[in-house]
Amino acid sequence: MSAKNNGLSIFALGGLNEIGKNMYAIQYENDIIIIDCGNKFPDESLLGIDLIIPDISYLVENKDKIRALIITHGHEDHIGGTPFFLKKLNVPVYATRFTLGLIELKLKEHKLLRESELVEINPDSNLTFGDIKVDFFKVNHSIPDCLGIVFNTPEGNIVHTGDFKFDLTPANDEYSDIHKMAEIGKRGVLLLLSESTNAERPGLTPSEQMVGEHVEEAFKKATRKVILSTFASNINRVQQVVDACKVTNRKLALLGRSMVNVVQVAMERGYLEVPDGMLIDQDEIDAMDPQNVAILCTGSQGEPMAALSRLSTGSFRGVEVLADDMVIFAAGPIPGNEKGVSKIIDNLFALGAKVIYGSGSSSGMHVSGHGYQEDLKLMLTLMRPKYFIPIHGEYRMLYHHRMLAESVGVEQGNTFIMKNGDVVDIENEVARQTRKIHAGNTYVDGVGVGDVGEIVLRDRKQLSEDGMLVSVLTISKAEGKLVSGPDTISRGFVYGGDSDDLIKNVNRIMTKTTNELLEANETKWNVMKNSIKKSVGQYIFQNTRKKPMILPIIIEI
Amino acid sequence: MSAKNNGLSIFALGGLNEIGKNMYAIQYENDIIIIDCGNKFPDESLLGIDLIIPDISYLVENKDKIRALIITHGHEDHIGGTPFFLKKLNVPVYATRFTLGLIELKLKEHKLLRESELVEINPDSNLTFGDIKVDFFKVNHSIPDCLGIVFNTPEGNIVHTGDFKFDLTPANDEYSDIHKMAEIGKRGVLLLLSESTNAERPGLTPSEQMVGEHVEEAFKKATRKVILSTFASNINRVQQVVDACKVTNRKLALLGRSMVNVVQVAMERGYLEVPDGMLIDQDEIDAMDPQNVAILCTGSQGEPMAALSRLSTGSFRGVEVLADDMVIFAAGPIPGNEKGVSKIIDNLFALGAKVIYGSGSSSGMHVSGHGYQEDLKLMLTLMRPKYFIPIHGEYRMLYHHRMLAESVGVEQGNTFIMKNGDVVDIENEVARQTRKIHAGNTYVDGVGVGDVGEIVLRDRKQLSEDGMLVSVLTISKAEGKLVSGPDTISRGFVYGGDSDDLIKNVNRIMTKTTNELLEANETKWNVMKNSIKKSVGQYIFQNTRKKPMILPIIIEI
């Protein structure tokens, strides 16, 4: 399973057929460069799992070849895996100033900051790793300081776009460097890896400036305090909120740990300008005229423990939402979060608040950071790649991105729709997808990384749906009979009603089965346990249509 | 807790601040009439629960006053609770011919059909219950044979809209009877109860005819077989699929139990016309030219066991989706189902199918059956009610519906935004909301109705997130010491890695705690168990950040 040692190879350990846990790799001979190291949040089928990160066992096996981890930008799905990665692989991390600030917050939390090697880069940086030269170009997205990457290899140039849109009127001068992109395309691009999040959406992404205009308008209309929730990392949107506070003479309070932390990083590093004296503590809110207050908070995705959720249920200590306060959702719900967000909107309306929300950009308070179809076609047109790998998306997004690529001139057959672990090898400017390396999910549960597997998850599923029964039976092998028990307790199973009768019958069946086995001289524990599980399981299913976990515990005296 | 015996009262046992389990009631003196009896599907926090139905204990206490259960239409959120209701309350059920067909399917399944009293009505029926006279008006929705209801009481007229939209070009002549509605409004409406599902959406609902046009166009374009998924109960859409098959010379196969059952009811009762010989069995599909085949199937909401999901993973016995087959989603995902639907779309694209889908009506293959803001305003305008109760919706929908009502002339203060269990009493044409009756959720889990409560759900949650440990300790009170064990087994907790060491340490701590207790002559089981749980729980949390359920079982010999 050692890495191939000649030629140029490209593969992903995360980010293909999924949104999340992005991790791509370029290998030229004995040099591997990793791009991004994200995490992903589990869906409800992964009971009890906190996070998913890429399985990096292939990289661990090849650790002497890894030269660098380059991060395109500071979103969780691109940096969230770094602490777990760096615990196993002490590789230098290259990222821009703002991105590094967010990575440092993470590493501090995991007590890893001191031993990590973090290298600040900017769009003009040039790096060399063996025969690979690396340079960068600035892209626009929904977080400051984003990079696209060019890998100049002896086989040809490979471009990785990072996450991007083309915003011709961005907030905070976060322009895409279209001129440099055009130059790169002119030099010649052998292979393009481009993100696919919005490949299903026609048109061009609306500009971030639109949000600023709507925010200012709403702040002017508001007769009492305004509460706005957005992603903390969207510093350019935060800047527009600050600007609206300036215009409407409001002080600004920050609620939620990540909002406070990220805004601090942004201010310290010069990505956010807040007038002196504008920021106030949450305990100053009450004393002020509501018309002079704004609150910026976390929780736009309906996260139950975040500030907005607690405000909506009246359980945020010291801050209340009152009638005629205005609440603005300046972020659309990510698929899967719709119900949680709706619950919060309902609660806020019930408090008498004026709530401004809407799907997608329909309220004018949110625009996507990911390019729509025309943005993606513009990138493809600028780069004019010979080969194309759509990345960062579920299958249907990669599929649509291939159609877009072909519509602007990428030859049929030159696009590779890949899975995590699939490898494209390039020799003599010819690309082929033939082999695989190991890729997969590593689950983080509590402090455990990778210690929860399929069996544990299957047990949790059974326990979660129908609960369990534990029965203790004491037998005497010498006498060949049950001497005490069964004593049965249940958890997560029926409760009250007829359940006493049910448990009595379970004990009766268990006694009968056990005595029959003992009379037949069957004392192998496995056989006994399985017979008991079977007879009791059948009885319970017939009477309740439920399948609780049944754990007979046999004690021999 | 007995019902109030004078005047007119209105309340809901389900359907307010939720989508689902609709159940409303009108009481005049000693006569109660129930409207609808729906169910609701649980969200993922209700582990293992199959269905939610209204808690009808108030009705059971007042069962001698209940005169009728009237059903507005045959959707699950209006009929899904009937078998459970009729098991407790043998009340005559009034519904139209098609709705009764669907109710009969349910009652057959629950072996309740013979003892139930089902009465067929139509939009021209007149019923009398004590001092309440009831008549009806036809409304258009996404299922045939829908009713709005007028209750003529001595206090005044109360109108319940059922679910509706205004479709001026419906499929199958399912027109709303606007003329009769206008007459009812002219007679005078004291109180209107109107559905609120789409009260947030501006404009007028698009017509069902649009779907028919898009379906026909797609069927003409398709070069191989077409697979279309929609709600089985949307018989007017099914008719349009049948019509498209006729035009394109395709045979039609039905996949999925509810599709087969509902289509059969519709054909038998004259709501669907299918040309002789058009329907084929699924095992005939393979032998036919793919261009002459269409499939109509269940599963448009991503339900994992439904036909479409199984087709998308190649696990539907005997029917395959092949390259260039066309798959049409003729239903938008209901909030909460987006991720399941996306997964199926991804799988279908990966099989090479051409997939037509889209959010809302963007693909032209789906329109809502619930009126948008202009539809709702038209109903309010026709009825000109003095009082208004928005029903059938989450809080923000009821809130917006109130604003719509006020915009067309309902006086401020005359709209009641209520919760399930709130009662509006009307005397001398004055309505007041002052009292409450008991309302709530009843959980159906397997065959158990109402036997799963909060404790069981809390246990399931803990078990689902962190699993459990069961430890058996045998003690001798005589000797005052532990004589065997602890033996600890875990389920749904860590597995492999360091877990052997962890369990060893758990046993060590348990032994120490038990012996200390016994030395101190503490032999109360509760005290012992709690001390063990506490010491072990602390150790496990410190080392894993997990909180499994800990069940010490102490055996005394």
TrEMBL record, chains A, B:
The active site is at residues 195, 370. Zn(2+) 1 binds at residues 73, 75, 77, 141, 163, 392. One of its GO terms (cellular component) is cytoplasm. Substrate binds at residues 232-234, 366-370. GO terms for molecular function: 5'-3' RNA exonuclease activity; RNA binding; RNA endonuclease activity; zinc ion binding. Its EC number is 3.1.-.-. Belongs to the metallo-beta-lactamase superfamily. RNA-metabolizing metallo-beta-lactamase-like family. Bacterial RNase J subfamily. Homodimer, may be a subunit of the RNA degradosome. This is Ribonuclease J. The gene is rnj.
